C-alpha cells in the first residue's frame, strides 16, 4: 500500500469489492477501510482512538479470511450464511461469539453510511462549508444512534480538530477542487451500492441489531 492517500484508490477498492453477481468481497471491503484509516491518520493524533477501533475490526475480519475457514469469508454473503448456519453469531446478547464476522462487519457497515452522507455533503458543499459541521451532521444521522454518550462526546471533540474544506480537498490527492468533486460524484454511487447490498442482506437475515 502506498503511503499517500488517494481518493482514486478508495474508489478502485470499493469497485473491486463488487462481484459480477453483486456479492461483496470482504478482502476489498476491508482494503477500502484500510485506505480510509491511512487518510484519517494523516489528519492527526486526535483521530487515533477512531482509527484503532477500525483497525481492530479490520484485523478480526482479516483473521477470519486467512484462517482455516477462510473460504467461507470470501464474500459478505458467504460469511453471513456460514456463520448463521453454524451458530457462530451472538444474536441477542454477547455470549460465546462476541466477535463474529457478522457483528464486526455491521460496525463498519454503519460507518459506511456515515461516510456516504459525509462525502455527499462534501461534494455538494460551497467554498465556505465547514467540514466539522458536515461531519457531525452526517454522524448524527447515522452512527451516533449506535454510540453511547461518552463516545458521542469524544467524537464531537475530534470533529473540531478537522482541517478546513481546502485542506481536505488537497489531501485527497485527486487534483483540483473540480476534479475532486467529479471523483466524489463517481465514487458515491459505488459506495451507496455496496452499502445497500449489505443493508438488504442484513435486513433479510435480521442482523441489524447484533450486539
Ligand atoms: C476524517 C474524519 C474522521 C471522522 C470519523 C467519523 C466517524 C466517527 C466514528 C467514531 C468511532 C468511535 C470509536 C469507537 C467506536 C466503537 O465503540 C464502535 C462500536 O464498536 P463495538 O461495538 O465493538 O464496541 N465502533 C464503531 O462504531 C465503528 C466506527 C468506525 C468509524 C470509522 C470512521 C472512519 C473514518 C474514515 C475517514 C475518511 C474520510 C473520508 C475522506 C475521503
TrEMBL record:
Principal location class: membrane
Catalytic activities: N-(hexadecanoyl)-sphing-4-enine-1-phosphate(in) = N-(hexadecanoyl)-sphing-4-enine-1-phosphate(out); N-(9Z-octadecenoyl)-sphing-4-enine-1-phosphate(in) = N-(9Z-octadecenoyl)-sphing-4-enine-1-phosphate(out)
UniProt protein name: Ceramide-1-phosphate transfer protein
Its membrane topology: Peripheral membrane protein
Gene: LOC107594044
Segments forming domain Glycolipid transfer protein: 26-173
Family stated for the protein in its record: Belongs to the GLTP family.
Record Pfam families: GLTP
Assigned GO CC terms: cytosol; endosome membrane; Golgi apparatus; nuclear outer membrane; plasma membrane
Single GO MF annotation: ceramide 1-phosphate binding
Residues annotated as transmembrane: none
UniProt source species: Sinocyclocheilus grahami
Subcellular location: Cell membrane; Cytoplasm, Cytosol; Endosome membrane; Golgi apparatus, trans-Golgi network membrane
Keywords assigned by UniProt, alphabetized: Cell membrane, Cytoplasm, Endosome, Golgi apparatus, Lipid transport, Lipid-binding, Membrane, Nucleus, Transport
Gene Ontology biological-process entries: negative regulation of interleukin-1 beta production
InterPro entries given in the database record: GLTP_sf, Glycolipid_transfer_prot_dom
